[in-house]
Specification:
The protein is mostly helical. Helix content is 80%, strand content 0%. Helix 7 runs antiparallel to helix 13 and helix 8 packs across helix 10.
Length: 319
């Protein structure tokens, strides 16, 4: 993010889908654990090279509708995560894990499209401020934002990662578990698409509080529910839990219009680090007390986060 505000990283954004797809598609060829870990590390670096500058580019071309721009960006990501599990199961069933490299063509097709669409769009800010100049504003925004985001990341990170495992524990087949994850992510497409757009009209904090609170309540009910009721609960959880993501992106974009990429990079850092810790926490509690208990803890933490959204400074108070 820091580099993207100083020099144009347009081609990082353009080539990231193809490079990331290439790296991920060879995981089945890894001969041992350490090579696999190295492959995943490189994939993470390539993914970050896209996710730091890309929202900044979108924020600059979105004008006053930053929330809507972030919604479109996140909706595309959630749609990919909806199709991804189904595509992976299909590819592995036909070619086995060793033959997954064939799907790399999809990533490079995305890169080709981005090349023709983005090659003329600037990827850096012309009137940027130094980190020293924006440091007070960064502290003012990111301290309360960190607390809010961190408390809900156990739910946001742990819920989808362990959802297939949780469903298998409850007696579902692997195919049903994959379908459940896709339903959850598909609902996330709608939530991501509307969340930022609604926040342009209703306000950022209201959408953040509503999405976080409702998703936590639905998760509590989901743990206790059975049968056909699981489907509408999954749809509701997916819709609300992902509705806040574009809003968070819009908040940091609006507070730092001259340093969009570095602000977005900080949010990405918090989200990835907190999400990883949240997943470890959910996995640990799931091993000791069951994933149902872990999900209930996630919901409680998210409910605590709801009123803390009020501590996030308004855009007109950032200075």
């Amino acid at each position: 993010g820091y580099l993207a505000d100083k020099v144009s990283l347009r081609y990082f954004v353009i080539f990231a889908p193809g490079v990331t797809a290439t790296i991920f598609s060879v995981v089945g060829l890894a001969p041992n654990y350490f090579i696999l870990a190295a492959i995943l590390f490189l994939a993470g670096v390539s993914s970050a090279a896209f996710h730091s500058p890309a929202p900044a580019m979108i924020g600059r071309v979105s004008g006053r509708r930053v929330g809507r721009g972030m919604s479109l960006f996140m909706a595309g990501g959630e749609l990919g995560r909806t199709v991804g599990p189904l595509l992976a199961v299909w590819a592995v069933s036909i070619w086995t894990l060793d033959g997954m490299y064939r799907v790399v063509v999809i990533g490079w097709a995305a890169t080709l499209i981005l090349f023709f669409r983005l090659r003329e769009i600037p990827a850096r800010t012309e009137q940027r401020l130094s980190l020293r100049e924006i440091a007070p504003s960064l502290r003012r925004l990111f301290i309360p934002l960190f607390i809010f985001v961190f408390l809900r990341l156990a739910m946001l990170g742990g819920l989808p990662v362990f959802l297939p495992t949780y469903m298998v524990e409850r007696g579902a087949s692997l195919q049903i578990a994959a379908a459940v994850l896709s339903i959850f992510e598909l609902a996330g497409v709608g939530g991501a698409l509307l969340g930022g757009t609604l926040s342009d009209r209703l306000g950022r904090k209201l959408v953040m509080m509503f999405g976080t609170g409702v998703s936590a309540i639905l998760l509590i009910v989901f743990v206790r529910a059975e049968g056909i009721w699981l489907v509408p609960l999954l749809l509701g959880m997916g819709f609300t839990v992902f509705s806040t993501q574009p809003v968070l992106l819009a908040v940091v974009q609006e507070h730092f219009p001259a340093n969009r990429a570095v602000a977005n990079g900080l949010l990405l850092l918090i989200s990835l680090a907190g999400g990883a810790m949240g997943q470890i926490l959910v996995g640990y509690i799931g091993d000791r007390n069951g994933l149902g208990m872990a999900y209930l803890l996630c919901a409680v933490l998210a409910l605590i986060a709801v009123p803390l959204a009020l501590l996030i400074p308004d855009i007109d108070k950032k200075q």
